[in-house]
Amino acid sequence: MSLKIEQISRSLSKVLLRKKHTRIMMDYFREKLPRLVIPESVNEWNARVSRIRKELVSKVYMKGHTHHALNAKPKVQWRGVIETGRGYRIRKLRYEGYPGMWIPALLYEPTELKGKVPAVLNPNGHHRGGKAMPYKQARCINLAKRGMLALNTEFIGMGELQGAANHMSQGHMDLCGVAGVGAMYLAMKRGLDVLLAHKNADPDRVAMTGLSGGGWQTAVLSAIDERITAILPVSGHSPIWQRAIDRWEDHGDLEQTPVDLCTVTDFDTMTAMFAPRPSLLIHSVNDSIFRPEFMRPSIYQPARKVYKFLGVEDRIGFYANEDPGDHNYERDIREQLYKFLNDIWNLDIPTEEIPCDDEIRSELELNVGLPTDNPNYFDIAANLSQKLPRKGASAKTKKEDRNRLREVLRLPRLSPGKSELVGKPQTVGKVRIQHHILNMSRWEVPVTEFKPADAGRPLLILSGSGRAKSSNAVKTAIDAGRHVFVADLFGFGEQVIDKKYHYLFMECVAAAGDRPLGICTAQLLALLKWVRSLAENARLEITAQGLSCSLIALCAAALSPSNFGKLNLFLPDSLRRLIDWQVDYEQEPVMFCFGLLEQFDIEDLIVLSHPAGIEIGGRGPIR
Predict the structure, then answer these.
(1) For 256, which of 90, 252, 279, 584 could close a Cys bridge (C-beta 3.0–4.6 Å)?
(2) Is residue 368 a contact partner of residue 105, using CB atoms and an 8 Å limit?
(3) Residue 139: enclosing H or E segment and its boundaries?
C-alpha cells in the first residue's frame, strides 16, 4: 500500500521548530545589529563620526555608484515662476538627481530679498500628492512669508514621480551591484546643493525638515552632511535593531533598511551624529508607526546623552504631537518648526501659523513637467544590467570564480552538526516517516524524511511555499521508490516568523551584512553532507519548486558540483528577467542578492555546476 496524499500532507504539516526559529532570529539580530556607544572622549567621538560618515557614503548609500555621480554639480532647469502677490513667489525647477533622473521641485522665495537669509530644505514623504500636499504648501508658504528660502523637493515615487512608486524595486538595482538607495541619496543631496547655490542662501542657517519619508531623508542627510545646521525630522526614522526585535510595524521600504547599513551604524547613532547642531525630534501619540513611547528611549534619550557629553544638551529636543496626533505635519507641528527656527537663529518671527488656506494651489498648477523618458528603478536597473555580468565564469577559471561567488553570497561556514529526531518514527504503507531538526552552527533546519522499504537514490525537495505544500511532489517521488527528504531552508516554511513581515526580516538580514541567499546556500550545503551520510554518499538529486529555491540549489551546485546528481529547477534564462518581468522583491527577497548579477548570471552558475545534470521546468534538459 502506497502512502495517500492526505497522509503525506499531514506529515509535512507537522510543526518541528515551534518557537525556536523566532528565538534564533531574535538572538541573531541582538548579536548583529549595533547600538549607540557613548563616546569616551570628544576626540574619539569626532574620529568615530568622521569615519562613519565616510563609510555610510562608500559602503551603503553610494555603494557601486561612480565617484562622478556623487560629486557632480547638479544640472538645473528653471521652468517658470508663479507670482503670488502675497509676499513670495514660487519658482518651478527640475534638477538631475540620479544621472538621467530629473527631480521636480518648487522654490518658495520671498519677494523682497536682501543679503543672506535662512534656507530650509523640505523633502517629501510617502504621500501621493507629493510636493503639492496642502500641509507642505502651507509650511513652505509660511517659511517664505517669514523671509526664508524654502525648497520643496519631490520624493521619488510620489507626485510627478509616481512611475517609481514601488520603492521595493530598488532591489533590482542592488542585484546589479549598485545601491538602489543611492538614487534617493543623490536626489536629496543635490536638492541641498541647489538650495545652497542660491545667492541669498545663508550657509550658516540651513535647516532640513520633513514628514515620514521626508523625516527619513532629513535624518540620513543630516547625519552625513554637515552643511545642514538645524534638523527637524518628523516621524521618519528609528533604529533597525528596534524594528527587528520589537517593532515590526515600524519597518519601511528598502531605503529605510538598506543593504549593509548596520555593518557601519544604525539610526540611534546617526541621530547622535546630529550633535552639536540644534535638532528637534517630533513624533505623534496616535501614529501607527514611530510612536513617542518607543522613539523617546530608542533614539532621543541615547542621542541626548551624546549631546550632554559634548556640553550641548540644550540643543536637542523631543516633542509629542497630540493634535491631531496621527501621522501628520499639520499646524501644531508646523508651529513647533517656526518656534524652533526662531529660537536657534534669533529671528524675531511669529511662531503662530499665518493663515494661507486660500493660497493652496492644485497639483496641476504646481506641476513642473518631466522628460518623457525620465527613468524609474526598473529602467535604471535594466540599463545597468546590459553589460552584466562583468566577468562571468568559465571552466578554466572555476576555482577563482567559486571564490568570487562565495564573496558575493557572503557565504557563512556552517557545519552539519547534530541531527535531532522529533517524535518517534512512524511506518505507514512500508514507508518510514521521521522528522529531524538539523543543527547548523546558529541555525536549525527542519526536515521530514520518507524512506520506502527498498529506497532508491536520495531526493531532496525544496519548496518556496514550505514543506507543507510539497505533498504532490513527495508522493510522486515515493511512488517511484525514492528516499525523500523535504526541508525548510532559512526564510521558507517554518523558518518564516511572520508572513506579513517576512520580506522585512530579509531586509534586516541584508542590512546586518549577511545575504539571505548566502545563508540558504550554506544551509543547503550542510544539509547535503548530512543527507549523503544517510544514503551511502550517493549524489543528491534536488527538486526545487519556485524561483528562490531553484536559485539556492543552483548556487549550491555551482560551489560543490561533485556532490549533486540532477537538479530539477524552475528558473528564467537570465537574472535580468527579474528586471524585465518586474518580479516583486516582497515575493522573492532571497533572489535580490546584492551584486549577484554584477558577477554571475544563470548561465555562469550552470557552467560552474558541471557535471551535475540540470533540467529546468518548461525548458527541459539543460545539461
Answers:
(1) 252
(2) yes
(3) helix 134-145
Cβ(460)–Cβ(527) under 8 Å?
yes
* Helix ranges (DSSP H) in 74-116: none
Residue with cell 497639483: 363
Q: Which of 438, 434, 468, 463 is nearest to 450 (CA)?
A: 434
| Grid cell of 202 as nine digits | 545663508
Is residue 399 a contact partner of residue 613, using CB atoms and an 8 Å limit?
A: no
Where are the extended beta strands (E) located within 498-548?
540-545
- The reply to whether omega before 276 is within 30° of 0 (cis) is yes
Cell 516621524 locates to 235
**Of 214, 240, 219, residue with least CA distance to 231:** 219
Pair 464, 547: CB distance under 8 Å: yes
Distance CA 556, CA 254 (A): 27
pTM above 0.90, yes or no: yes
Residue range(s) occupied by CATH 3.40.50.1820 in the chain: 5-28+394-621, 33-385
Dihedrals φ, ψ of 146, to 5°? -95, 10
CATH 3.30.930.10 fits 33-385, yes or no: no
Beta-carbon contacts of 120 under 8 Å, excluding residues fewer than 6 positions away, are 143, 148, 149, 150, 151, 206, 207, 208, 209, 341
CB 195 within 8 A of CB 108: no
Sole residue written with cell 504631537: 321
Question: Which amino acid, residue 407?
Answer: E
Ordered strands of the 316-321 beta sheet: 76-83, 88-96, 102-110, 149-153, 117-123, 201-211, 230-234, 279-284, 316-321
Q: What angle do CA 409, 461, 548 make, to 5 degrees?
A: 35
CA distances from 532 to 390, 425, 435, 595 (A): 36, 20, 17, 32
In whole angstroms, give the CA distance from residue 520 to residue 542: 14
Q: Is 309 in contact with 45 (CB distance < 8 Å)?
A: yes
Residues in Cβ contact with 574 at an 8 Å cutoff, skipping those fewer than 6 apart: 601, 602, 603
Phi-psi region of 253 (alpha: psi -120 to 50; beta: other; left: phi over 0): beta
The mean pLDDT values, 10 residues at a time, for the chain of 623 residues are 82 92 91 96 98 98 90 93 98 96 98 96 93 98 98 96 91 98 97 98 98 97 98 96 82 91 98 98 95 96 98 98 97 98 96 97 97 96 95 93 98 85 90 94 93 89 93 92 95 87 89 97 94 83 96 97 92 96 95 98 96 86 77
Would you say 509 and 490 are in contact if contact means Cβ atoms under 8 Å apart? no
Place of cell 543631496: 189
Residue 14 CA to residue 408 CA, distance in Å, equals 35
